[in-house]
Specification:
By secondary structure, the chain is mainly β. The protein has one domain (2-7, 81-110, 117-330): Methylamine Dehydrogenase, Chain H. Helix content is 6%, strand content 48%. Keywords: Repeat. Pfam families: NHL.
């Protein structure tokens, strides 16, 4: 089922709108844990745009206000493709042309300014697990102040895991390949909220692979589930109850919605596909069959708003309830084949 839904009418100043229109090609975006910041990867201009944002529920649905912005520049920010928050004020950036970099955000001086900042730590991996064209990154917190950074190495077709220790200034203690079986240009990554599943969008195979989290997880582990008919998948996110997965299709106008019961084994087709760009905007960015559609995708921490980004439509918000639609109780997304 394919539908078109209206975007949320965003409140923002002309200065904010000008900053959004000026950042060029975008990739991933991510809400902070406290839901007050939204970070956008400005790939071509080699910087990050940080927005101060409010998401509030009203009688007619969620509303979004963007109060201010800050443009981050650094010699540790290159072709930034992926990013995620470690905490409300600590951001990890994945540069496709280089390394990971971890920053403390100077949010007290936002006020529509450009800020030159220095990385707390640069991470390149180790000799037997070097980062290579790092793209999307996702954070998973561990014991003892450790943070696992799961990184899509786009053109070596592997996801690597880098364990950084907060009290050592995010120095890494472990670096190893984590996933590889079934992946061809891993382009987006997400972890379920219950910590049981890793979803990785695989551009070359045009699907999303799902791996069950376990101590034995490794590069030869076969995916337990597959989200089919995903087009050219990029951003991927679980809803907060882990019963739906949303996938941005960079080769169409669509975000695909997959439905499950929290067990993502087997093969699934989209239960619903939602157009998040109009045709004119989409065709303007249609340089190839793999381009023009949404790339970055995230769900805010209140689970009420979907945010998407691409070069021709820098930022748009949609009510998550409208994206999921009324099919939710129909279980259209049950597995149609065993893994």
């Amino acid at each position: 089922m394919r539908v078109k839904i209206p975007p949320i009418d965003v409140k923002a100043s002309e200065a904010v709108r000008a900053a959004l229109s000026a950042i060029g090609r975008t990739e991933d975006l991510r809400f902070s844990p406290d839901n007050r910041l939204l970070a956008i990867a400005a790939f071509a201009r080699k910087r990050c745009l940080i927005l101060r944002i409010d998401v509030e529920m009203g009688s007619s649905g969620p509303g979004v206000t963007i109060h201010d912005f800050m443009e981050l520049r650094s010699d540790s920010i290159g072709e930034v493709h992926g990013l995620d928050f470690i905490d409300d004020r600590t951001l990890v950036v994945a540069n496709r042309d280089g390394q990971l970099a971890i920053f403390t955000l100077p949010v007290e001086s936002m006020a529509g300014q450009a800020q030159e900042i220095t990385a707390l730590r640069r991470i390149s991996g180790r000799p037997f697990c070097k980062l290579n064209t790092p793209g999307s990154v996702v954070v998973r917190h561990g014991p003892g102040g450790s943070v696992s950074l799961l990184v899509c190495n786009n053109y070596t077709h592997v996801v690597t895991r880098h364990v950084a220790i907060r009290w050592l200034g995010y120095r890494t203690s472990r670096n190893r390949p984590l996933l590889g079986n079934g992946l061809d240009i891993p382009d987006g990554i997400a972890i379920s909220h219950d910590g049981q599943w890793i979803a990785v969008s695989s551009h070359g195979t045009r699907d999303v692979k799902l791996y069950r989290m376990s101590p034995s997880l490794g590069p030869d582990t076969e995916p337990a589930g597959v989200l089919q008919d995903a087009g050219y998948p990029h951003g991927v996110r679980f809803t907060d109850d882990d019963r739906h997965i949303l996938v941005a299709d960079a080769g169409s106008q669509l975000v695909h919605v997959y439905a499950g019961d929290g067990d993502w084994r087997g093969h699934r087709a989209p239960a619903r596909s939602v157009a998040v760009l109009d045709e004119e905007t989409f065709l303007r960015g249609r340089a190839s069959p793999e381009e023009g559609g949404p790339k970055g995708l995230d769900i805010d921490r209140s689970n009420s708003v979907l945010a998407v980004t691409c070069e021709e439509q820098t930022l748009a918000f949609f009510a998550l309830a409208s994206v999921l639609g009324a099919f939710e109780n129909c279980r259209q997304g049950k597995a149609i084949a065993s893994a």
